[in-house]
Write a structure and sequence with these properties.
Largest sheet: 10 strands, mixed
Radius of gyration: 21 Å
Helix content: 25-40%
Number of helices: 11
Strand order of the largest sheet: 1-2-3-7-4-10-11-12-13-17
Distance between the termini: 94 Å
Oligomer: single chain
Number of strands: 17
Length: about 400
Amino acid sequence: MKSFVLVLLGASLVACSSDPGPFVPYVPEPGSPEAVAYDNGITRYLGEVPVVSSYPGNAGTKIHEFDAADGPQCLRGREFRAITRSRSRRDLLIFLQGGGACWSDFCFAITTAPPDMPETDLLKLDATNPFQDHDLLYVPYCDASLFAGDTEIDDDADDTPDRIHHGLANLSAGLTAGYDEFPDPSRIVLVGSSGGGFGTILAVFLVRYVYRGVPIVVINDAGVGVAHPEDPSFVADLIDEWGAGDFVPDDCTDCIADGNVTRLVRYALGRDPGVRIATLTSEYDFVISNVFLEVPPDTFRANVIAATDEIRAAHPDRYRRFLWQGDAHTATLGALSAFVGVDVAGVEIPQSALEGLGNIRLESIHTVTTRGVLLEPWMRAFVDGRLDEAPDLVADPGPLPPWAMPPP
């Protein structure tokens, strides 16, 4: 009888060790990579926003719903959800969707979360997807504040919020749900496209706090982090408007001083030796340069080169660029449906942007090349740590796109 009890106890301990349960917030070791998020207070929603219902979606996905009263909401108050898919129980892909941004002077944004996971280059289940065997956490982007906001804004002064920037709560809810499904990955690949690319710059601190000691590979697609070096107040004002100031560490006094947020990338690499980061962008990205920043394409390219040169010089062993000619926006989506899904009514586009929609082109990991190198195998090599097969690639300047030429 005694041996039988010991066997049962041993089996129970094994079961417990393989299932750590829901995420529990903790106090990290001072000075550790995990302490960045904790010390700045951006962990406040982790483990505090429970999933209220989960149900099966398409192609093996699981949809996780949250109660808006707990914080997660889209820009105009619609429900937020996160989506997972179990595959290997080994490597975890966290994908941050893109979809614009919204502030007091401009609003081009996706305001709803898709009902299920879209089928894009890095999300579909086939051999062309280098991450098809990864477990997957898909985090929709519908807060229009780059997954960082934590405020509500009443634009028309009628005592009802018009903009609900709950990006931090949404991201935290997604990470909490992801941890519940995948608590012990051997590696994390954090990918974000467009607004989600910008989001990776901030989210990497939270991902590190949730997954202590796990190697993190970041792929930032079309969200380099350059803004307005000639007007440093632009970034500072956005961060203040969105209530996202806690994402700028107190000991990184120059993180946004140059009018970009790229020095947050340098800071993350400097504080966390377990992080490796790649930046993907076209040289004249129409959506970022023309629609959002309203800067000439050659100015955008020069700013990208200057800002990323700085990161590269500081961390040549763990930072890579894949900069290709042209003005396409994103390389990891392959289809506009990855942004808008099926709810076209959830897309808010200003009149000024409508006029240039015909210039928006999305590329694919299977078509983008620079200096004769195709992105898809380059990305595989970078993620797997074969860095000699994923060199730092910056294309020579190409011709200015037609939309940037002066009228005849």
